[in-house]
């Protein structure tokens, strides 16, 4: 089998894996709704349906950012990695095709940070860690906020600090890393 055929086979297998996981997630949602209805709890079913609808709305916003590489990473991470749950929030529509920004720097920084956090999670925590990544825009920058529900090891903190220091396209506006909270906010300034 040629290298091209191997790559196509690998990509096809990955797409099928993602589709199966997505189908499984939707079946779980339907089962939860059915359970609430059978228990005579329509208010809980309605609340759950609102959360699922909001999640679907956020996924739709992610898929329309006009940055396929980043969209695929954000939409598929949970299906491919179990150590860290990744939630994404778009505070309004973001269209990378209309903003003058170093997209590759954004991608490298975001994925590098997520993988560094995943690799250096403090395993003594009783619950699985999750990270909320929030995107917003100002007139001069794309703002990305990372809010970790979990803690990093000391070596992980050092790696993240080095990543932030070396990122020339972004500036850190806030970084809180205490025993109670871990939050990092960065701004990627638009090129003028």
Question: What do these coordinates show?
Answer:
The chain is α+β, with helices and mostly antiparallel strands and 192 residues long. Helices cover 53% and strands 21% of the residues. The chain contains 5 helices and 5 strands. A 5-stranded mixed beta sheet has the order 1-2-3-5-4. Helix 4 links the parallel strand 1 and strand 2. Helix 1 runs antiparallel to helix 2 and helix 4 packs antiparallel against helix 5. It is globular, with a radius of gyration of 19 Å. The mean pLDDT is 87.
Order of helices and strands: HHHEHEEHEE
* Largest beta sheet: strand ordering: 1-2-3-5-4
Q: Helix- and strand-based class?
A: alpha+beta
- Biggest β-sheet description: 5 strands, mixed
Helix content: 40-55%
Task: Give the overall shape.
Answer: globular
β-sheet strand percentage: 15-25%
Number of strand segments: 5
Number of helices: 5
| Gyration radius, rounded | 19 Å
Query: Overall pLDDT, averaged?
Result: 87
Instruction: Note the quaternary state here.
Output: single chain
**Sequence stretches where pLDDT stays below 50 over 5 or more residues:** none
Distance between the termini: 48 Å
Write the layout of secondary structure elements.
Elements: H1 3-38, H2 42-63, H3 68-80, E1 84-90, H4 103-119, E2 129-137, E3 141-149, H5 154-166, E4 170-177, E5 182-189
Parallel strand pairs: 1-2
Antiparallel strand pairs: 2-3, 3-5, 4-5
Helix pairs in contact: 1-2, 4-5
Q: How would you briefly describe this protein structure?
A:
The protein has 192 residues and is an alpha+beta fold. The protein has five helices and five strands.
């Amino acid at each position: 089998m040629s290298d091209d055929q191997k790559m196509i086979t690998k990509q096809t297998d990955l797409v099928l894996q993602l589709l199966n996981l997505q189908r499984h997630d939707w079946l779980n949602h339907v089962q939860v709704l059915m359970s609430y209805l059978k228990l005579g709890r329509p208010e809980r079913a309605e609340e759950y349906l609102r959360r699922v609808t909001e999640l679907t709305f956020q996924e739709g916003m992610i898929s329309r950012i006009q940055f396929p590489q980043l969209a695929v990473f954000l939409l598929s991470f949970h299906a491919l990695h179990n150590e860290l749950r990744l939630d994404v929030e778009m505070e309004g529509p973001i269209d990378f095709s209309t903003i003058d920004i170093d997209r590759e720097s954004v991608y490298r920084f975001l994925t590098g940070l997520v993988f560094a956090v995943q690799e250096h999670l403090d395993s003594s925590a009783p619950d699985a860690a999750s990270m909320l990544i929030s995107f917003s825009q100002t007139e001069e920058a794309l703002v990305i906020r990372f809010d970790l529900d979990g803690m990093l090891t000391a070596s992980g903190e050092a790696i993240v600090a080095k990543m932030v220091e070396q990122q020339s396209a972004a500036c850190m506006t806030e970084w809180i890393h205490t025993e109670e909270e871990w939050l990092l906010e960065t701004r990627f300034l638009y090129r003028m």
